[in-house]
Amino acid sequence: MINQAPWCVPVNPDRPVDPMPDEGVTAIHETAMRILEEIGIAFYNPEAVAVLKQAGCRVEGETVRMGRDFVAEMLSHAPARWTITPRNPDRRITIGGNHILFGNVSSPPNYWDLELGRKQPGTRDLFRKFLRLSQYYNCIHFIGGYPVEPVDLHPATRHLDAIRDKLLLTDKVPHAYALGAERVEDGMEMVRLAAGLAQEEFDASPRMFTNINSTSPLKHDYPMLDGWMRMARRGQGLIVSPFTLAGAMAPVTMVGAVAQSLAEGLSAIALAQYIRPGAPCAFGTFTSNVDMKSGAPAFGTPEYMRATQITGQMCRFYGLPMRSSGACAANVPDGQAMWETSNSLWAAVQSGSHVVYHAAGWLEGGLIASPEKFVMDCEVLGQMLRYFDPSLWRTDPGDLAYDAIAEVRHEGHFFGIQHTQDRYQSAFWQPSLSDWRNFEGWQAQGGVWTAERANLLYRRVLEDYREPPIPDDARAALTEFVEKRRAEGGAPRDF
To answer: What's in the keyword line of the UniProt record (predicted)?
Structure first.
């Protein structure tokens, strides 16, 4: 077993960074409201358009314009804090307040590891390996989208096998893609069956969540809106994350990109709140810049960090929980990958984010999932959990250590005194995840580089992994449902 901190729902004790003065917040808000009122958002879903027309919004074809008073009224219903309870209630998570939650890499089509040395399309076997890693590491609090796309499974029934794998190989909060009626309805029913819940129990409080992306600039597509509305009606967790890359799908200025993202995301939250007042919603940021020579997205940059902090300030203005991401543009788990991801993760901490997607395993702007990168990121997350530990700033007499300083005085050292011995390898002093080594220790281990060491650790984790228990009747009900829906064709609809 590797050394890691126990499972917990961490609390971020730091005061969030507010980069803008009050007049900056007001200016961005006014711009977002003008976009909603004057330009409008294209909703490519007739049902969503009809709902918003009924709500009093101005509709011209697929373009919907919302008044700021309507948006404010809808946001007043959105809870600032909510919980999700998976099939194992000990893995319940709280979204909002001072909590910060980390999730696994989600949705890359490709896989890379050190031994392969190149990327390849994802498979179900690789997908299941990442689920085991996600279950094993206590610093991973929820299971996002597919950690790598299992393209060897047929698209019509892929969601049935993938969600069943999630529910059997992990007992943490699950996600389902909002990609039309069948995938969402099947996902909700599978989560209900795995938890052994009656329909009323499932609808009473969140048991799962989804994340949708607007199609920037200023559009929401048909299948994501369909899934969004279905999950809203049943009170499940909803996160909307506009993918606004400054200079490409949004203005090149960061405050302009943030204002556009707010208009896109708030329009979806207003729709959910009109359908079900009090529906649990969070606003997600994915605003960054691009390389203007190639158009490639950049992550972990100063622009990305500031956009995340600004969005956090705006989410506090609206009283909404916030989602951000750990991301990088590097193609392999090297130094660039780690400094960009570390910048992204610290931006999440500084911004007051509550949900952090892609916190472990992401490469090449989301095109690659890597197990070595997963392990390396989890070690960074372990250090963050240690950073959040209130024991580091306790000021009781034992921690202030006057007597210890008086004992050592001007000569000697603190290695052998009782004050040190009482705290060494105690709850006060723990490595983050796995044993730390300095350069000499690294040489003694055979001189492996960081990615090589991560490869060894990820293989050890897969050996140590144990499947979480699930009642036999829940397992049987889940299997029966999957086979029934497979026989019916799954989700054959093309959008």
So the answer is: Methyltransferase, Transferase
Predicted confidence (pLDDT) per residue in 267-317, tens digit: 999 999 999 999 999 999 999 999 888 888 899 999 999 999 999 999 999
Domain spans of the chain, in order of start: 397-430
For residue 176, what are the contacts with CB-CB under 8 A and spacing of at least 6? Answer: 159, 163, 183, 184, 187, 188, 191, 208, 210, 227
Tokens matching residue 313: 């300030």
How is residue 158 written in tokens? 């892929």
Task: Single out the residue of 116, 127, 180, 118 nearest to residue 149, CA to CA.
Answer: 127
Report in angstroms the alpha-carbon separations of 304 from 19, 218, 232, 252: 13, 20, 30, 12
Residue 298 in contact with residue 248, Cβ under 8 Å?
A: no
CA angle 364, 217, 236 (to 5 degrees): 75
DSSP codes, 455-483: HHHHHHHHHH--PPP--HHHHHHHHHHHH
pLDDT (0 to 100) of residue 492: 81
Which SS3 state, helix, strand or coil, does residue 109 take?
A: coil
**Of 338-347, 413-422, 423-432, 454-463, which gets the smallest average pLDDT?**
423-432
Tell me how long the chain is. Answer: 495
Average pLDDT in the chain: 94
